[in-house]
Amino acid sequence: MGILSQLSIIYLLWTAMVFCQYEDYDFGDEYDDEPDHQHSYYFNPSPQAEVPRFPVPVECARECFCPPAFPLSMYCDHRKLKMIPNIPPHVQQLYLQNNDIEAVPAGPFTNVTILREINLSHNKIKFHMIDHGVFAKLSHLVQLHLQHNELEEFPFPLPSSLERLLLGFNKISQLSGNALEGLPNITMLDLCNNFLDDSVLKGKRFSVMKNLMQINLCNNKLETMPPDLPSSLMYLSLENNSISYIPENYFSRLPKIIALRMSHNNLQNIPYNTFNLPNLLELNLGHNKLKQLFYIPRSLQHLYIEDNDIEMINVTLMCPSIDPMNTKQLTYIRVDQNKLTTPMSTYAFFCFPHIRTIYYGEQNSNVNKSTQLRTPVFRRLLTPEEYDEAEDDHETHDQETEEDREEENNYFYPYFQ
Ligand SMILES: *[C@@H]1O[C@H](CO)[C@@H](O)[C@H](O)[C@H]1NC(C)=O
Ligand SMILES: *[C@@H]1O[C@H](CO)[C@@H](O)[C@H](O)[C@H]1NC(C)=O
Ligand SMILES: *[C@@H]1O[C@H](CO)[C@@H](O)[C@H](O)[C@H]1NC(C)=O
Ligand SMILES: *[C@@H]1O[C@H](CO)[C@@H](O)[C@H](O)[C@H]1NC(C)=O
Ligand SMILES: *[C@@H]1O[C@H](CO)[C@@H](O)[C@H](O)[C@H]1NC(C)=O
Ligand SMILES: *[C@@H]1O[C@H](CO)[C@@H](O)[C@H](O)[C@H]1NC(C)=O
């Protein structure tokens, strides 16, 4: 076995490990429509669930269901509840999603001792209807789901035990100065689909969240990159904002970034070395206004630059030199809806020896409204099945390719809407 293949096996093992480890933190596939059908009895045993050794008298709120098989969970979801029922002391997981709850008063939480997870998503909760400190006193709380509510402000104070906080699909346009403090264990913060703009984030110290691995800020109103992110960050989602530039060296403080999603922004010029990051695997810059490419780091596997203003892909620019001992890992490029008139130079295959698919799709050239390169999908090392598939793509070139979906699925699992 050659050194190269040994290296690639080690690399594969390494990525597999990384992904197994952080699978939980992968971004969701926001290109999918949200499934509306919810599982009424969603069982989510906590890894540290302490199952009592003796059968406890199963106390359960009248409005809810406490399955004998999962004695630490109380299910009160999909019941048109207007109020939070009283929570018995032994409950660890509380499911209250999909109700008409407007307020979070302290009363029902009086006897709570070991509550680890609350799902309050899909309700009508407003910030000022949350009793001050009601969450903060839940000292074992690890996950809090508040997505799809009517919060106008980032809820705080929160308990320092919190690890995952989901606030997507609210109306958050305010973030109190100290709201982010006291969350040393938080790893995942979802703020997509809110009303955040630059002024809200200005001066906010995200870096106090020293263990933050993923922050989702997609579908907000940001015009600049979020300030002061912690160096622990691995997944950054900023799609569908109005960001027009990335400051020089912005990512030098974020060396652990694995995936960056910035599609649907107004990016035009990106400083050449912006993405020279040692761990970057996925870079999504589709639907921007890019004219020029940039340096491709060795680790990058998937590059999405569709729907930009690129007239020519200068491979020398992406790959100024070839190091046979350290080959670039790029396998997939999506470049449809640009202004290309010719395919990439064959130098690309020396520089990116692992490339499997280049999706050219349709191009918007200046002269003719829509032209198509002779090979809308380039595939390397085609098996007969893949060849047939590529042939099919000729006919359906404007649709997402099979591989495309496959590639995305490899990396991104639904995040918690
Ligand atoms: C708390 O526990 C006490 C004693 O068991 C009980 O009387 C009271 O109703 C409980 N309160 C709530 C909010 O569950
Ligand atoms: C929380 O509720 C949402 C529905 O709003 C559901 O999709 C999700 O799976 C639930 N998550 C957990 C961990 O209970
Ligand atoms: C934070 O996480 C660590 C490691 O899991 C744990 O030991 C510690 O108690 C947590 N801190 C809080 C405030 O819960
Ligand atoms: C972008 O966000 C707007 C609301 O801010 C929404 O209407 C639109 O559907 C979003 N587009 C995409 C592609 O997510
Ligand atoms: C491609 O980029 C290289 C490096 O910046 C440059 O020297 C070369 O002129 C470019 N080629 C074209 C055709 O623009
Ligand atoms: C535009 O399209 C016409 C016919 O469809 C073709 O003759 C012409 O060469 C095209 N021009 C360019 C620049 O591709």
Automatic annotation (TrEMBL):
Residues 59-93 form the LRRNT domain. Residues 385-417 are annotated as: Disordered. Keywords: Cell adhesion, Disulfide bond, Extracellular matrix, Glycoprotein, Leucine-rich repeat, Proteoglycan, Repeat, Secreted, Signal, Sulfation. It is found in: Secreted, Extracellular space, Extracellular matrix. SUPFAM superfamilies: L domain-like (SSF52058). Residues 1-20 form the signal peptide. GO terms for cellular component: extracellular matrix; extracellular space. It comes from the Eukaryota. GO terms for biological process: cell adhesion. Pfam families: LRR_8, LRRNT. Binds the alpha(V)beta(3)-integrin. May be implicated in biomineralization processes. Has a function in binding of osteoblasts via the alpha(V)beta(3)-integrin. This is Osteomodulin. It comes from Anas platyrhynchos platyrhynchos.
